[in-house]
Amino acid sequence: MKLRAMLAGLSAALVGGAVLVALPAVAMADQTALSAHSWDSGLHATTSAYFDSVHAWGQRQTAGAWGTGPVNYMSGATAAHTASSSGTLSVAIDGTYCPGGACAYGGGSGYKSFVQFWNDPANFIAFGLIHDPGVSPSGTTLMIEGAANGKPVGGYWPNGALSGKSHLFTIKWTAGGITLTIDNQKTVGPYPVAESHPSISFLAAGRNTRDTVDATFHNISFSSGSVAAQTVTVPSGTPYLTYTASVAASGTGTGYSAYINAHDASDNAISVGIQIDKASPESAGQPYFTWERVQGGAFTYNYVAPAPSGAQQITLKWWSDSNTAVFFVGSTPIADISLQLVPRLFFGAEGDARLNGDTVNSTVSNVQISAGNNCPAYCGLNGSWNTRDFNTHGLKATNTNGQGQNGASFSVTGTVSGLAAGHDWDSDTVAGVAMIAQYWNGA
Known about the structure:
8-stranded antiparallel beta sheet; Jelly Rolls; mainly beta; 2 domains; 32 strands; 443 residues
């Protein structure tokens, strides 16, 4: 099973001057700072603002095939501090080189993208994907390269054995060994590589001059205690937006969710809430606090932490001066998210389900929203909640207490129908949404 594609799949509906950007419904515990670097002038690497992804790409300029000279053919990022003596890393490796629209991990005679655990010169290992004339000339396959107490370990799956443009790698390590699980289906190892204090890197490489590579390491997440967790930063000052509600996600079938969200009219949006997705390799069908973000139409997401059963009080705050959103559960901040929004803003209370036949029975209760910093002309809410115009594929949002603005409560119910074969909430908007706009100079 390949990791299901997390593409934007965005749609916009213009109703009464308000643009609804519909987020596709979709961690472990800790993250660590990552430092980007390159050994070749044509290869590049960047990290996301909160170190949950690495993009490594470019066209190699140095000469000499890998394995025949210096290690001058790579770019990527490395954790700023060595890891603990045991832990778990989850990361999805996506191919983002797309000649003719067919995405791959690179082009030319050879390329690879991999996660490397380096303990010392005698104990290291790399798990990744490789295209190479010797081991996989007609496609990509699994690469395991390393040493245990100075003796080689690893190998390669048969030529072209690992196809597709996205794969989830789950790596578990201890001081005495390390294993890899691919797409939650196949585990290889353990390899007797000592990992008492590993340095962890996310790397991509070109085999020879002018070979290209383009890989993105998405949703980098470590188990609690395996690395130094990044402190959630809450900006100072008064946020432009504060949106609080009690949410409960319920339903049947393969997936359902409950979210609160905010968006603008420029393809930017943020959604925080609880999601259950039995098709997700990251969450394995368990309830997770999840955020989803759209920036200029590009979609990203993160599973932040497991969510307890029952209704949970959540808050979304956004600071316009620092372009930072913070996700709170109760009074505890659990994630900070780089986010640009362009007011006027619009707000949603949303429930989703995944496939035809799945049901949702979620609630978003006692919504409280404050928005704006230029009062009274651009502050507060305008009109009343619209529960008519943003319901799709059999799902419906209902205002259950009749409150027009703050204090309103909603249920989202229904059974998904009408999706084309092979479609789901990643490809289509499958939601019931109540929406309201920010007050904007009289409208």
